[in-house]
Amino acid sequence: MSKTLVIGSTGQIGLQLMPLLQQAGLNVVALTRNPGKLAGIDGLEIIEGDLESDFEQAFVGCERVIFTAGSGASTGADKTLLVDLWAARKAVDYALKHHLKHFVMVSSRGADNPDRGNSPIKPYLVAKCFADEYLQRSGVPYTILRPGRLTDAAATGCITTRRPEEAERQHITRADTARIIAHVVKTGQSRNTIYELYQGDTPFTDLIA
Length: 209
What we know:
InterPro entries: NAD(P)-bd_dom, NAD(P)-bd_dom_sf. The chain is of the alpha/beta class and 209 residues long. The protein is built from five helices and eleven strands.
């Protein structure tokens, strides 16, 4: 039976995402350094692993992978390099080796051009840019999602995929982002596509194939 691997399972998006995947009838594999953080979610296959080491074993038997891991805002450029770039690159290599059918990469607004503007998170955007490009060139079927600034507000179900001109409107909730990821995985139709994601007025099911 096919499985869906979630990398970044204990992150703020990952924890909201996995129950949605289960509700869609998918068998979920969660890769984590801290299995105890997943104690409240039943029915998961949990694999303990570290993104800074070899985590290939998590890909065995999987058909899809979602990479929603991140080094976190409190870490330095070293962790950004090791997690957001190098671990993502390794995940792409493992996906290719194990013939996965779909790789969903959660990237970021601005990863298309880290030189645009004067972003304080430019090292992170550079890492995401190169990780995205590596995935695109790998031959693994992909969907790249580039959400705007993430908020903890309640889901609205409505988005736009066009970047608003005003920077203060370039945001989206983590809850909506999790729902969009689940939709992409469940439908399996948005292959080799990149979407930017922002709060908007259109149901995401009308914009995301």
